[in-house]
Design goal:
Layout (H helix, E strand, L loop, with lengths): L1 H24 L8 H5 L7 H16 L12 H4 L7 E5 L7 H4 L7 E5 L7 H12 L5 E7 L3 H12 L7 H18 L4 H18 L4 H7 L4 E8 L4 E4 L1
Parallel strand pairs: 1-2, 1-3, 3-4
Antiparallel strand pairs: 4-5
Helix pairs in contact: 7-8, 8-9
Length: about 240
Amino acid sequence: MCELHQRALSRRGLLTAVAAGTLVGGSLGPRGADAAEAGRSNAITPEEALARLMDGNTRYAANAPANRDFSAGRAARASAQYPIACIVGCADARVAPDYVFDQGPGDLFVVHVAGNFVNADGLGSLEYGVQVLGAPLILVLGHSDCGAVRATIDVMKTDAVLPGHLPMLIDAIRPAVDLAAKAQAQDPLAEAIAQNVRHNVRRLEQAGPILSEAIARRQLRVVGGFYEIATGRVALL
């Protein structure tokens, strides 16, 4: 009980420090201290972070991963994390960004939700990853044969009523299906998946104040990608 209480206090203390840094100094965490920034393993440009992800995906698709020793750096990770990228990924069990991009523990800050869209909770997590942890890149990752997007297309065609909280997923993905319909693509599902990625990239680029300001300072970039499950390859959109 005491341990749980101490952890809760620690989290509250961090959030208080974050809020104080924003209100008093105009910046916070890693972005506000040049000396600390220089020593961070993720103190790289958004372009460098993206290159590391794509190089890792090339290794993964070739079945030649570089990250095999999961004990390496374990002690250091106990005290801090320095992710090189935030990933907005689908909850699909076949999509595991750490493997897909051949990154080690602590390298990726991943937000999972069926349909890889951004809601308020996900946005808050991404803001934390960027502002507090210093990640220079956000990648929204769609994938082939996405069941959430397929279900949205089917529901919009049939006006089916889904149980529980499933309608919330449909409402979040609906704008992408509408965009795909306007495009009149030969493959409506693939087009809707791509439009869903682009739609959420735009949302994140415009999300103020944290993300949009980091982009304006060129400390952050938001990109979209499409993961082909059958080949293991990621293509940027």
